[in-house]
Design a protein that fits this description.
The protein is mainly β and about 120 residues long. The protein has strands spanning about 5, 10-15, 20-25, 30-40, 45-50, 60, 70-75, 80-85, 90-100, 115, 120-124. A hairpin with a 6-residue loop joins β4 and β5. The N and C termini lie far apart (about 40 Å). The model has no long low-confidence stretch (mean pLDDT about 95).
Length: about 120
Amino acid sequence: QVQLVESGGGLVQTGGSLRLSCVASGITLEYFAIGWFRQAPGKEREAVASISNTGFRTNYVDAVKDRFIISRDNAKNTAYLEMSLLKPEDTGVYYCAADFGPNGSLLEDPYEYWGQGTQVTVSA
């Protein structure tokens, strides 16, 4: 059974930082690209960042560039999203997703496996 489990969310003030983790079980993460997505209250889910299976290629949406860093440790079967200079508009449930193959994507369709999400709340 494949599971992706996110953790590290919480309540933080504007300008603060959080580090999200996504631990995979039931798959060997090194064969999967990873994406992070988020869903704000009342809004559709949107992409945040993606990383190739090797970690050599990363992509970010403009809203988080220069503030968020996506990374992975394949030896630990874990991916990360380091978030800094957080803003209230970063509030939402953050999901990690895994896509079998080398290339990360900022589209939802390619991803076969999804976690349950972790809540991030940024207070003004």
